[in-house]
Write the structure tokens for this entry.
Amino acid sequence: MERTDKACQYHMNGCNCCQSVLAAFSDVTGLDEAESMRIGGGFGTGAGTGELCGAITGAVMVLGMAVPVAPDNPAAGKREAVALSKEFQARFKEKFGALRCQELLPLRYEPDDATPAAKRLGLTAQQHCRIMIVTAAELTEAMLKERGLM
């Protein structure tokens, strides 16, 4: 099963957006499903405040966990993780025009060629969170592959 499909399935089973993205990358993060659920549990609905979308938060966690960190130079790993986070957010915002949950929810984005996984899965504007989730998973996977991190 593709990661996008896994992420969508997690959300259909009641997981929040962060949990759905994070759990779909368990082979990358080394977290098992239960750990992903616990770690991501408080990040749904923009951490309950409508701020940064949970799908983005889950993706940033995955990207950060994929970056090797040398104990003698943790700052280098931090810089790379922050750079990946910024790049991911720029790509996400390019597709959806916003990063904040409270701004994304009313958009009711319709899947198109810019969101191929959401389009392939037949998601509709009424499934706006799932569109964000599968697109976040798609972008995360692409970024990890581009950098040889998976």
Q: What stands out?
A: Residues 3-145 form one domain. The two ends are 16 Å apart (CA to CA).
